[in-house]
Amino acid sequence: MRAVFMTDVGKIRQRNEDNGGIFVNASGDRLAIVADGMGGHRAGDVASEMARDNLKELWEKSAKIQTAEEAEKWLSQNIKDVNAILFEHANNVPACEGMGTTVVAAICTDRFATIANVGDSRCYIKNESGFQQLTDDHSLVNELVRSGQISKEDAEHHPMKNVVLRVLGTEEDVSLDLKTIIFEEDDVLLLCSDGLSNKVSEEEMDTIIKSNDNLEEKASKLIDMANHYGGEDNITLVIVEFEDGSERG
């Protein structure tokens, strides 16, 4: 299994409020994280950094994940615990009042991948069925699409596109979505913040992901494309590729 993490401030923002990474526990299983922070003065970076750091620490101390049920339980419990940490911090530190962060995280083993998400950071998969989004955005426009009030095409340019309905840190309790998939040789996961998904189409992502470039080149090309299309937001991604290890970097 190979993986790369990359983040970029974009072309407009003064600072990067995204965080993430790829972390390995003692058993060699990987946890990939992308978190997109939001809030007042510097609070967005605090929220996403705290989410990443706490999940990283918990993961590195975790036991081997044997089953999908164990992976889903780990993500559910620990993301909810981290939500409580962020909520308490936001209530006790005036500068961080109202801070929050999206999170999309994937536990990747040699047999399956389990994905959790809160907010509108996304996970996509490329496999034998093609390239598709695995997660559902917890956003106002996605709810409008789901209820049939607007089309998916309308959602791309909706004025309320950036309104997120669910994040870590803003409420005492949080609910998250969980999904487990079989992860097979040559399958690829792409986790990203909306700085990528709002600018680069699924067709363009698919073209880059299935190219013969190595993972670092693929990540760089995705970020360059988002910046080419305006780069109004921070851009963060993780690519995880399940291979036999004999080729490509």
UniProtKB/TrEMBL annotation:
<dbReference type="Pfam" id="PF13672">
    <property type="entry name" value="PP2C_2"/>
</dbReference>
<dbReference type="InterPro" id="IPR015655">
    <property type="entry name" value="PP2C"/>
</dbReference>
<dbReference type="GO" id="GO:0046872">
    <property type="term" value="F:metal ion binding"/>
</dbReference>
<keyword id="KW-0464">Manganese</keyword>
<keyword id="KW-0378">Hydrolase</keyword>
<dbReference type="InterPro" id="IPR036457">
    <property type="entry name" value="PPM-type-like_dom_sf"/>
</dbReference>
<dbReference type="GO" id="GO:0004722">
    <property type="term" value="F:protein serine/threonine phosphatase activity"/>
</dbReference>
<keyword id="KW-0904">Protein phosphatase</keyword>
<keyword id="KW-0479">Metal-binding</keyword>
<dbReference type="InterPro" id="IPR001932">
    <property type="entry name" value="PPM-type_phosphatase-like_dom"/>
</dbReference>
<feature type="domain" description="PPM-type phosphatase">
    <location>
        <begin position="2"/>
        <end position="242"/>
    </location>
</feature>
<protein>
    <recommendedName>
        <fullName>protein-serine/threonine phosphatase</fullName>
        <ecNumber>3.1.3.16</ecNumber>
    </recommendedName>
</protein>
